[in-house]
Specification:
two-stranded antiparallel ribbon; 7 strands; 2 domains; 5 helices; 140 residues; Recoverin, domain 1; alpha+beta; 3-stranded antiparallel β-sheet; disordered N terminus; single chain; elongated
């Protein structure tokens, strides 16, 4: 069977759209949120929404991150959250911005993070605080 798959596109509203065109008569199996064609490819009809990604095949193991990989992921997530809350021009985070972003941990420990009493902190200040406070979990 010859298939052409049009890859997933995400529109501005966040709906996932995708189609699959099959060159020969084939069957599809519904999975609750998408259909699978004979070639094992998933697709949804235009206008449908996928509530979750397709499940992994039986027997598939997904390695959990550990060590440096896990640390890198955590630091990247913290950096992303910090950047979203911080001033986009100065890349500094004030106490008011931390409160506005709902970042309670930073609000609670802001005075300890802001060791120079500048009224704002950089991501490096925040990471330095975490390394000092949380030991091996944040050491390079």
């Amino acid at each position: 069977m010859r298939s052409i798959h049009l890859l997933t596109a995400v529109c501005a509203a966040g709906a996932v759209l995708s189609t699959s065109l099959a060159g020969a008569a084939g069957t599809t199996r519904a999975t609750g949120f998408a259909s699978m064609n004979d070639a094992g490819g998933y697709y949804i009809k235009v206008g449908e929404q996928m509530s979750a990604p397709p499940a992994d095949s039986p027997g598939t193991t997904v390695p959990q991150p550990t060590g440096k990989t896990l640390q890198s992921q955590v630091v990247a997530d913290l950096q992303q959250r910090f950047n979203a809350a911080a001033d986009p021009t100065t890349h500094l985070l004030s106490l008011a911005q931390a409160k506005s972003a709902g970042w309670g941990y930073v609000v609670t420990h802001f005075k300890e993070i802001d060791q120079d009493n500048k009224g704002s902190v950089s991501f490096d200040d925040f990471l330095r605080y975490l390394k000092a406070r949380n030991g091996p979990a944040f050491r390079s």
